[in-house]
Amino acid sequence: MTSTTTLPAPPEVDYPDLGLYIDGEWKSGTSGQPVLNPATGETLGEVPFAGPADLDAALEAADRGFRVWRDTPVAERTAILHRAADLIRARAGEIGRVMTAEEGKPLTESTGEAHRAATLLDWDAEEARRAHGRLIPSGPGETLSVHRVPIGPVAAFIPWNFPAGGPMRKIAAALAAGCSIVIKPSEETPGTACLLARCFAEAGLPAGVLNVVFGVPAEVSRHLIPSPVIRFVAFTGSVPVGKQLAAMAGEVMKPALMELGGHAPVIVCPDVDPVAAARACVRGKYANAGQVCTSPSRFYVHSDLYDDFLGAFVEASEAVRVGNGLAPGIGMGPLASSRRRDAVHRLVSDARDRGAEVLTGGSPVDGPGYFYPPTVLAGVPDDAAILSEEPFGPVAPLLRFDDLDEVLARANALPFGLAAYGFTHRADVADRLVRGFEAGILSLNHTGGSVPHAPSGGWKDSGYGREGGAEGLDGYLVTKRVSHRLAV
Ligand code: NAD
């Protein structure tokens, strides 16, 4: 076990009261589960679980809420969403502290995420005004038009890694499109979701438009998805769960948006500065302790600069300050749960057992909380699980390559197709990467995250549908053809 660094004591967090938000009211559910602080293992609160009657109440509320919201003028809807965004921005400090306490990421990341959630809401609120239909040329006496109308109440399921950004992607798009929503954020990070719901309530969102429930995930999805009230299913999470929910939605002929896992390849070409590229990769790798679906997770480095890249990568990894994300100066917090820490360590141990060299890190940090240090692996054999299973943690396998076509084939060999990264200054090489990568999101010469004004989403097993950008409302709208003849 690695030892913890001595750090200043983190501030106390005022953890909010948790509840189910149904039909504009807070309810206490039928059972519950403790919410743990992953940095200390201490209990922050108890998340209430919805029973079948609570879920039915949420469905009925979403049904009623949809009729009200659908018929609310778009300018009024937009104004309410912007007011909610302003409240989130004003409370970003409080939301960030709660998020760090329940998920672990450093306070700068969580406060930034709260601000980005507000920006995302502002973007989608304006997209509500741009969800245009069109007029199609037709004969005299007939108007032929295309309308885009809200699909209906949405059921959404969100994981724990972005406690504000994750729920907001679904809520903002659904509400901007004119839909109501029943959302199940993660039971591991319910405080942030409750604070967001309060902002919507205070902004004047009518009752029933947003309903927030928690519970046993499989029971909640089995209850909501087949309900005739629900018209669209949106999920972010792992590929296996996504496939289950997509199949369930398919059984009842409901469209779905699936934002699933990835295993993002990075190709570092021989024309770049290896130290600058390594530092950019390290910044992306350890954001949210690697628990990001687009996290760079397989680093293919050209043999000409492999040694220099590796040296700089290890040095920058060792400089990351690990500790309680509430304390100042922390670069990386704990993993979100003991389950995640154990899963990451299993992948590292498997690689080591198969002959990989651990250049830094490689064992859980001693002490309370679920800390795992930045870990760099070299000489990882092809059959190591970490090269095919999404690591979802602070582990970087470094691999060599010599030929671009051959490395692109290795990069594309997995069933995932979410994010990919390339480092090159050559236009012809960049062109081959842009054409060659099978991924929905490609970043060249950086590892920065998503933005509200451009679409994000997967390819292959990483899912379908897009969030953000001009495409962000597509799944939540139905295209209706209307031909109107003036005479019968
Ligand atoms: P998990 O697959 O058990 O859970 C992921 C999320 O899905 C959780 O929040 C959970 O509440 C929800 N979920 C699980 N079963 C469900 C069901 N039947 N119905 C509705 N919701 C359900 O795994 P985990 O240990 O929390 O995370 C592990 C893996 O999940 C990671 O390795 C990663 O692949 C994936 N993951 C992906 C994302 C992403 O952003 N795409 C986020 C978190 C986790």
Sum up the overall morphology in one term.
globular
Give me the count of strands.
20
Q: Mean pLDDT score, rounded?
A: 96
Number of domains: 2
Helix percentage range: 25-40%
Which blocks of ≥5 consecutive residues have pLDDT under 50? none
Radius of gyration of CA atoms, rounded to a whole number: 23 Å
The CATH H-level homologous superfamily of the largest domain: Aldehyde Dehydrogenase, Chain A, domain 1
Q: What portion of residues belong to β-strands?
A: 15-25%
CATH class of the largest domain: Alpha Beta
Structural class: alpha/beta
Strand order of the largest sheet: 14-15-16-13-12-17-18
What ligands can be seen in this structure? nicotinamide-adenine-dinucleotide
Molecular structure report:
- The chain is of the alpha/beta class and 488 residues long.
- The chain has two domains: 9-260 and 461-482, Aldehyde Dehydrogenase, Chain A, domain 1, CATH 3.40.605; 264-450, Aldehyde Dehydrogenase, Chain A, domain 2, CATH 3.40.309.10.
- Helix content is 36%, strand content 20%.
- It has 13 helices and 20 strands.
- The longest helix has 23 residues, at 107-129.
- The termini are far apart.
- The relative contact order is 0.15.
